[in-house]
Amino acid sequence: MKVAMHKAALLDKANEELKAHLCYQEGMQITDVEMQGHILVMQSNGPLMPDTDLNALNDFAKAFSDAYTLIG
After folding, report:
1. What distance in Å separates the CA atoms of residue 65 and residue 9, rounded to the nearest whole number?
2. What is the Cα–Cα distance from 43 to 25, expressed in whole angstroms?
3. Which end of the chain has fewer CB within 10 Å, C or N?
4. What pLDDT digit, counting tens, does each position of 4-58 carry?
5. Are 10 and 71 in contact (CB under 8 A)?
């Protein structure tokens, strides 16, 4: 079952978990979240350096969206 959160709390949680993830690089930040149908879509800014592991970043996004949903 997914955890439902309001936007501000969900953004805080997403950024907290992103900073703890192996894919995190200094300056990365999730800036917005929205529901598109049943899919949680996250927008971010920050540097994508040549050594950025995009597969790990995608794994983070999928795992987070599988665990949380936006309400309100």
Report:
1. 14
2. 16
3. N
4. 999 999 999 999 999 999 888 888 999 999 999 989 999 988 777 888 888 999 9
5. no
Give me the domain span that covers residue 40.
3-71
57: left (phi over 0), alpha (psi -120 to 50) or beta: alpha
CA–CA distance, 6 with 4 (Å, rounded to integer): 7
Q: What share of the chain is helix, strand, coil (3-state, %, to 5)?
A: 40, 30, 30
Which phi and psi angles does 43 have, rounded to 5°?
Answer: -110, 145
Total of domains in the chain:
1
Per DSSP (E only), the strands in 1-72 are 3-6, 29-36, 39-45, 68-71
